[in-house]
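Structure in, sequence out. Go:
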């Protein structure tokens, strides 16, 4: 049996979010890292600052780690939103907005030195990214179920 899939007109929003949105968010999250490299004297190619070598290692590493977290999950997120968006394009497009705003707020919390590092990433709204993540995951599972059970 062949399953046919029609790409909805609103899928363009998913493509914009996954393609252009991911690059814009990456640039926004990379800005504080590059600024901190100069201010805290952590030159490239060092990904992280070394405690005992770099004076402000913890401060820099919190900034770098917040950006790295985004990069670690991005490929899975984009794959899920592109797939799930075939069946639920508006949900995935809106979820993408939540994901990127959440990633930026996650960084703001993680950078805040007045907060405990374990909770900092979620204190300023970083949990919003999980709304977008699970929206895309649900949409992808729904698409898979529809394809598997199609008659």
């Amino acid at each position: 049996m062949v399953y046919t899939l029609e790409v909805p007109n609103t899928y363009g929003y998913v493509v914009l979010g996954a393609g252009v949105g991911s690059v814009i968010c990456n640039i926004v999250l990379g800005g504080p890292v590059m600024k901190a490299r100069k201010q805290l004297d952590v030159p490239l190619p060092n990904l992280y600052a070394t405690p005992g070598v770099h004076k402000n290692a913890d401060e820099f590493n919190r900034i770098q780690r917040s950006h790295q977290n985004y990069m670690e999950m991005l490929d899975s997120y984009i794959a899920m939103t592109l797939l799930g968006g075939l069946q639920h394009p508006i949900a995935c497009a809106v979820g993408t907005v939540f994901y990127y705003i959440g990633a930026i707020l996650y960084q703001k919390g993680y950078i805040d030195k007045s907060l405990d590092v374990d909770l900092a990433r979620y204190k300023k709204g970083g949990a919003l990214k999980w709304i977008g993540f699970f929206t895309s995951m649900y949409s992808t599972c729904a698409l898979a179920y529809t394809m598997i059970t199609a008659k």
